[in-house]
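Hello,

Following up on my earlier ticket. Below are the eight sequence lines again, exactly as submitted.
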Amino acid sequence: MDLNVYLSGEIHTDWRQRLKEGCDAHNLSIVFTSAVTNHEASDSAGDILGKEDDNFWRDHKSAKVNAIRTKTLIENCDVAVVRFGNKYKQWNAAFDAGYCAAMGTPYITLHDEDIVHPLKEVDSSAMAWATTPEQVIEILKYVLTKA
Amino acid sequence: MDLNVYLSGEIHTDWRQRLKEGCDAHNLSIVFTSAVTNHEASDSAGDILGKEDDNFWRDHKSAKVNAIRTKTLIENCDVAVVRFGNKYKQWNAAFDAGYCAAMGTPYITLHDEDIVHPLKEVDSSAMAWATTPEQVIEILKYVLTKA
Amino acid sequence: MDLNVYLSGEIHTDWRQRLKEGCDAHNLSIVFTSAVTNHEASDSAGDILGKEDDNFWRDHKSAKVNAIRTKTLIENCDVAVVRFGNKYKQWNAAFDAGYCAAMGTPYITLHDEDIVHPLKEVDSSAMAWATTPEQVIEILKYVLTKA
Amino acid sequence: MDLNVYLSGEIHTDWRQRLKEGCDAHNLSIVFTSAVTNHEASDSAGDILGKEDDNFWRDHKSAKVNAIRTKTLIENCDVAVVRFGNKYKQWNAAFDAGYCAAMGTPYITLHDEDIVHPLKEVDSSAMAWATTPEQVIEILKYVLTKA
Amino acid sequence: MDLNVYLSGEIHTDWRQRLKEGCDAHNLSIVFTSAVTNHEASDSAGDILGKEDDNFWRDHKSAKVNAIRTKTLIENCDVAVVRFGNKYKQWNAAFDAGYCAAMGTPYITLHDEDIVHPLKEVDSSAMAWATTPEQVIEILKYVLTKA
Amino acid sequence: MDLNVYLSGEIHTDWRQRLKEGCDAHNLSIVFTSAVTNHEASDSAGDILGKEDDNFWRDHKSAKVNAIRTKTLIENCDVAVVRFGNKYKQWNAAFDAGYCAAMGTPYITLHDEDIVHPLKEVDSSAMAWATTPEQVIEILKYVLTKA
Amino acid sequence: MDLNVYLSGEIHTDWRQRLKEGCDAHNLSIVFTSAVTNHEASDSAGDILGKEDDNFWRDHKSAKVNAIRTKTLIENCDVAVVRFGNKYKQWNAAFDAGYCAAMGTPYITLHDEDIVHPLKEVDSSAMAWATTPEQVIEILKYVLTKA
Amino acid sequence: MDLNVYLSGEIHTDWRQRLKEGCDAHNLSIVFTSAVTNHEASDSAGDILGKEDDNFWRDHKSAKVNAIRTKTLIENCDVAVVRFGNKYKQWNAAFDAGYCAAMGTPYITLHDEDIVHPLKEVDSSAMAWATTPEQVIEILKYVLTKA
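Thanks for your patience. The regenerated structure is below:
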């Protein structure tokens, strides 16, 4: 059994890295995918098509270019991991979770206990809530190898 | 032409009321629906099935009971209006927007200019971004009557 | 808000009746539907098309005739209530729950605590687990009227 | 022609083993998949995310973690074989059958004659009813090689 | 419970009439729909758009105009009754049955016993095989009223 | 039988009016819908949300607001009539035809013979090609009344 | 570009063989699939699960076992070729065409001119009508190589 | 990450060639597909099945044969690039864009600024508007490599 796992959300900590390394250490057959996580590159993606003076349209263009990547990757994944950090709004992570829920794609949330209440709708459609990348690694290992 | 419009997001201001009254004033043929917006009733919806000591499971139970309502209403709506206020995380609003995007249901966002950047993914899949309920009323009036 | 609620499972107790009467007492706008619950009529539904000597084919014919009804009703419902009693196998109830899960139709399970373990897969995809019809009535009342 | 075959249901006899060995003996091009069939591992899958005191929530967590695996495998299979043994409730097997029926995925049931009547709804949507793993092997061999 | 029933196939006997009258006699809440059953009108439907010299294109145009009607009606029906008479090829009836099968729409076949063998694929996806309109009436009556 | 018919394309001639009046004259049970056909209102629809200096974004905003209307109407229609006049590009009409084709919604094209060649892909997925509104009226009359 | 082509219909002439050899001769990258075309093997497929005295049920069982194969292959194909010979009813071929039409799978019909009229509904949803296997080979060659 | 990119529209300039070469130069993992772009071959595709005197039917036959190719390729692509040149109607390009929009397939438009207004509906559903093949190359490079 192979899995295609999409990693959504927080880009300011090393959770993606820890997750990949942990799964590699167990030789799990997983392809990980992600949005472009370089913040500046992501914000300026639309500039390729010409600069915009208005911030709304600059964001709009960049978000659409990024969506070419993320939409394709989310629709192709078997499972998503959606990470909510302690800073920033991360509405795009919640948006991805809603997208997965509507598609019937299972997802795992990854966040601290102190934001359980505001994430209750997002968590209630998830297949699991983890607080550490290591727990996610254990779940993926269980899913893939405990036949 | 009739419309079924789902109102998602912020529950602490009167935007739903202003929207409904404004549309009524124009005799627009719209049915508005919403999640349960009474905060306490919503948080304790799961208590009907027995109290929980653990906060996570209390939220989980309540969120699932609420989802019986919201999932049915979102899947039946023609258009959603998703409101992001200046307080609170409102991840459920972004979740609803992602759900609509995956379903192909058009939605309008309603929020101030200062949160344009964190909402860029949510806005880029929306059909319109409004800053006041009155703009949403004008759009619905246009959509319904400007044949 | 109206609901179309499909009642699946146990046919030997009065839970359907209690549910309907309880919802009527609250004037809830619900249409309840069900398989044919007259056991003998249901078992002999296929006899209309000619008697069968072989029990397997008699059951097969009747089950298919019944499916004309149940498939139509399940696909049209907004919510299902799936009841597991203390007797009988009730595999058809679990089958209906799996059908709803695949369709994305929310369902509520109704069963005693002592069969929680064998029903864990069925319950984990449900939106709620109730132990009494009265709890289901309260949930439906909440869903329909607590706007 | 290759087939991806999901094996659902009873975990206390060697039917999966016999099926795989029999198909191997005929060099059939089949990938077999399954839920985690180690009963204890399956029941404790959710403990990875923290222990639960309440049995319902322990089952709930484990069932959801297991569903990451089973949902992915069922949605990817071409055919399912659903086995009902003489012991246990096996509502999850009937649930899987209902899921397949709604998805339009063909499935074969495997059970003794004495439970034909309670399984009539499950059997009537199946493509075949077998009483021995050897019959299933013959069917798969026919499907794959009798061009 | 109401039903929308599409009547497909043979146009040279009075089976549609008998079916409608029989259901009316039982006050069943059924809307019956059908292709245009006037043979000449149906064959010349495309002539509205200009005459064709070539028979293939005349048939092609008329068949497409008729499909505006039949596609809409088949996709809206709850159940189809597909009638195979003893004369003519009636490939359009088998085509409609295949269309229903792919859509997951239940259908009942209506034909004599002597064509069971050539209709085995069509019958094996049907919910019932009847030999007389009266049997179909009894089934529809059972489905609608035996709650 | 009722029909919901969406009228797409050319806005500078009276074809919509002739079509509606002709169908009314035959008492056909049809609801006709359309995009906003007032050219100026349509072009400035986005101005409700604030003026744009850049023509591309002004068009973008207006087109999205208009899509709230058109997407809803096209997805709800049974049949579309797509009109290509002799002037203007009318790429939106071809876009609507492609949208219908992908949705499986039958559509009728309405255009002169001299543009048959550039419209061959659009026509080849259509159910009929008409050259006058009167022919479309005759087809709709046939579809609705020639049972 | 590769194609997966399903060959449906007539089993008493060598059209499948001619088609495969002709495509091989052009080195076209095509995987051809088919139902079991050995008539006796196909008719007795259900006997694996126990003999039936009643012809209807024998056909029923065999047809369902065969459908495990055909349903999987049809749903996986890119294009179907549906052959109607001059003998036999071939309702299964028309059934397959209807199935393809509902799935949106393109198909080519292959039949003589004298049965154009009874096949008009089947042909009108087809992408092409050919009278010889050689024409089908030319079309497949064009589709695959004329970039 | 790999991409399957469908190139739709204008066939009289070298934009396809420039796009492919540019992506090759960056070693991007892309499979490009296209309709048959040899104009004469495309127009005469239907002649394989017999010549037609009537231009409409000649175009109709050829367009349907071409659709076997284009429908398969569009439904398999991850992203489409839709090119509108300064000459010709190119309704088929707008048709493809509408098809993609209904399928939820992201597409990029490629056209000069002077046709922004007539393309506003097509552009407003696109993920990006480019004016040169080089911009499209940059976007594809960003999407594929800027992880």
